Amino acid sequence: MDRSALTRTVRGLWEDDILPSLSALVAIPAISPSFDPAWASHGHLAAAVEHVRGWLADRDLPGATVEVVQLPDLTPVLLVDVPGTAPTSDTVLMYGHLDKQPPVGGWGEGLGPWTPVLRDGRLYGRGSADDGYAGYAAIAAIEGVRQAGGTHSRCVILLETGEESGSPDLPAYLDHLRPRLGDVSLVVCLDSGGNDYERMWLTTSLRGLVQVTMTVRVVEGGLHSGMASGIVPSSFRIARQLLDRLEDSATGEVLVPETHVEIPEDRVLEVRDAVASTPGVLVGSVPWAGGTQAMASDEVELALNAGWRPTLSVTGADGLPAPDDAGNVLRPFTTLVLSFRLPPTADSSAAIESIRRALTTDVPYGASVELSRIEAADGWNAPTLAPWLRETLDRVGKEVFDAPWRTVALGGSIPFMGLLPEAYPEAQFLVTGAVGPDSNCHVPDEWLHLAQAARITEAVAVVLDAHARR
């Protein structure tokens, strides 16, 4: 494969074809269904799918088919089937998603969630980095291989629209499409990233997720706090007591045994190599307030915390008035959204049952506890790299990035990955992407590093060619 031709093709596609279309995709408020219950009537997910479908349909890929697949009452998926140029019968499955996190307030001057802004090699806007670029990069990698005289196996690109909601519809689609996918021997997921923009980062594990909304109710309506306090227990205090069953508030250690696993030694060694390659990044990329310090001084421990140990975050609340509206009222209820990140090999079903028991058994004062919006997803731990893939990544590090590739134990979840190992036990996995520690996914000022996205695209092209020739 002509490497110079590959680089020219990929960079040209990003500058001339991808950037204008991706910018227009940013402008579509395709909020994930968990955050937009009326997604079907609003039509934004469908608009995002149609926008990318139109771009894909115009590509010069002989024999390729582009299809919107939508099962009854489920969010749509976009399926692209590109015939291989190599005499192989297996399939490369390439994944991304088109749904987005909510906009969130507090964007910087001149920026906004649905306003694409190109500034200093960055494309700002919701969904630019997470994960609107994935489908474009997948097609550009395939086109790059062909233009450079390389070869590739059949490639199927699957873009879903429910990832940010935990991919609740994806199992049904994978079952529905499995006969069409064929023998999947390589999975390429472009919904990840790493600790800098100087090298290729391979995600080798993903944490699982348990999320539950807990409502503690003590009375049917608000009461004058001067008359009711001391008689009626505080719903907030009861919620605090219940949280103490789940987490050590002094250390942050999760107290639910089912959420803990033994960390494999090879993953610990990978974390040490990653930290040594990017010292200070884990702490330096955080916008600390005041004199706040990290939970540990050892960056290896911080990386293991973020990738292999369970954590609890309270990500939302209800029943608490804004300060300006807070009168002297004993509130009837407190609602907290509890988000647990689980180790990659933890059993999310066992974890959620243990959490449920802890929150609903022997509740202080006999208060009412309601659990709703319960979600659970297992994590993922990658299989050992095949020699051909490891050798290819070594070559990519030298030729594309001029820096050795490294691995990352990603603290987030990609439900798609957890669904595949059982269905395709012999497949190799390339989970990577252009996201860095300060790309602001899920928060204000999300941005995509365009040069890194182009390099990742080129790297995927090299892997596709090597896979077909292995």
Per DSSP E runs of 2 or more residues, the count of β-strands stands at 18
CATH class of the largest domain: Alpha Beta
Query: How many structural domains are formed by the residues?
Result: 2
Quaternary organisation of the protein chains: single chain
Helical content class: 25-40%
Q: What overall form do the CA principal axes indicate?
A: globular
Largest sheet: 6 strands, mixed
Radius of gyration: 23 Å
Strand order of the largest sheet: 1-2-6-3-7-17
Q: Report mean pLDDT, rounded to a whole number.
A: 96
Give the CATH H-level superfamily of the largest domain.
Zn peptidases
Task: Please report the number of helical segments.
Answer: 15
- Enter the CATH topology name of the largest domain: Aminopeptidase
Which strand-content bin applies to the residues? 15-25%
> Which architecture name of the largest domain does CATH use?
3-Layer(aba) Sandwich
Distance between the termini: 14 Å
Structural class: alpha+beta
Low confidence ranges? none
Organism: Saccharothrix ecbatanensis
Protein name: Acetylornithine deacetylase/succinyl-diaminopimelate desuccinylase-like protein
GO molecular function: metal ion binding; peptidase activity
InterPro entries: Cyt/Met_Dipeptidase, Peptidase_M20, Peptidase_M20_dimer
